[in-house]
Amino acid sequence: MTQNGMPNMVMPGDVITREARRAGQNVVLKGDMLVSSKVGRVSVTDDTVSVIGLAGKYVPHIDDLVIGKVISHSGQAWELDINSAYVGFLLATDVFGRDFASHADELSSKLGMGDLVAARVANFDRTRDPLLTIDDRDLGKIDSGVLVRIAPGKIASLIGRQGSMVQTIEKATNAAFTIGQNGLVVISCEGPEELLRAKKAIGVIEREAYLPGLLDKVTASLGSGSR
Amino acid sequence: MGGRESDLVLLNSDGIRCDGRKIDEPRRISIKAGVLNNANGSAYIEFGDNKILAGVFGPRDVHPKHQSDSNTGILRVRYHMQPYSVPERKRPAPSRREIEISKVIKEALLPAVILESFPRTAVDVYIEILQADGGSRCAALDVAAVALADAGIPMRDMVSACAAGKVADTIVLDINNEEDQAGQADMPIAVMPNSGQITLLQLDGILSTSEYKKCIETGLVGCKLVYELQKKALKERYFGGQGS
Fold it and tell me: Is residue A20 part of a domain?
């Protein structure tokens, strides 16, 4: 139980509280009860009760940074797999600029099948697929690194409070992390040994994101002298 | 309706059934969540001699496109028996019975699954019967619900199922294959355990009003037992067996 008398870990259908609170993400209001709709951890902020789902696909939110894999393209846009129920669209004008002409510019010259792209969700609602943009600093094609997948619900644990967790791993392994909110992480580092240690640390977060003392466990997995 | 003629003693004078169980005792049940790497969610159940695997994909793009609904997601369920799941080789093409069970499982899961959150998508549930014993539709429903939760599909509640039936003029819990063949009635029940809403109720056989009521009560007790095991399987998968 958490300090407010609510359960910490919940399953679909579990009653979280009967108190008058707002239903946040992954919580449904049933009569006077707030009920969890996913397996996850309960999070209470102000008067809103949410469940951080430990499983499931990424649900796009505007302004999220995501990493997408090019799976197809039409004459006007690329289609990116963003580990979501929906395919992300990246418009050709975003990459080629305003003077893009579909008859003259070949999309595959810029991004080919399987390429990884760091992008931001520009627009998304129930009626349309997520529209992505790379029109920002540090966005665009990812040229090097290794792709690692983690449940989107565990991304917050990977980042840690004010980035403490990812900074610890980066410092210990000399690696650079590009973290997509959609659960895709690109690790760039110098040698295979550092890469293995970074992957091992992510594995610890994937398995034990719900347990207390996570930072210590990750630090231990990185070996001595990591702090 | 008296079931098939058989020399088998379904219930002896001590109230012990043909497989050694008491009348209110379910078969041995074990559930494991997250057994497949390539599906979005999966689970495996052993329910007596039933061995069933379920894999869930989605929410994902709908193909064929004409099935997609712009207001909500759709649920598709396939219940399939492997050719080696029964003593006589079963032809692998979907039979009338499999099509019917796929339909009733889908309809039993639909009230629990929140598909409105994912318009224009499909959630696909594939259930493979590796070994069949009596009550495979209930076991399939139990494992499908765990696989859906494992896939992170939002659900209003879990769905737990268990059969009850009438054997030698007695209402018993969780009937096995022999009791199904030679017994007098079989009633599979599925319920959303927290809300108490029944999502599947079938009856093969004839029961009096009082027997019918008792059969439902008995089946619901079985559903509750199954629900605890479903929760345990998910706890083990996500919280290492901890959890409140």
Answer: yes
- Chain B residues with CB under 8 Å of A86 CB are 61, 120-121
Range of the domain at B39: 29-239
Q: Which of B213, B201, B208 is nearest to B184 (CA)?
A: B208
CATH number at residue B124: 3.30.230.70
pLDDT tens over chain B, length 244 residues: 455 556 778 888 888 999 999 999 999 999 999 999 999 999 999 999 999 999 999 899 999 999 999 999 999 999 999 999 999 999 999 999 999 999 999 999 999 999 999 999 999 999 999 999 989 999 999 999 999 999 999 999 999 999 999 999 999 999 999 998 888 999 999 999 999 999 999 999 999 999 999 999 999 999 999 999 999 999 999 887 665 5
Q: Count up the domains in chain A and report the number.
A: 3
Give B4 to chain A, closest Cα distance, Å: 41
For residue A79, being part of any structural domain is answered with yes
- Provide the token pair at B159: 């769905």
Q: How far is CA B31 from CA B17, B34, B49, B228, in A?
A: 24, 10, 13, 10
Residues of B in contact with A9 (CB under 8 A): 235, 238-239, 242-244
CB-nearest to A85 from B59, B70, B244 is B59
B156 closest CA partner among A40, A28, A49, A25: A28
Select the residue of A8, A10, A55 nearest B151 (Cβ to Cβ): A55
Q: Where in the sequence is the domain holding A214, given as residue range(s)?
A: 146-222
Cross-chain CB nearest to B194 (options A13, A57, A85): A13
Structural domain count of chain B: 1
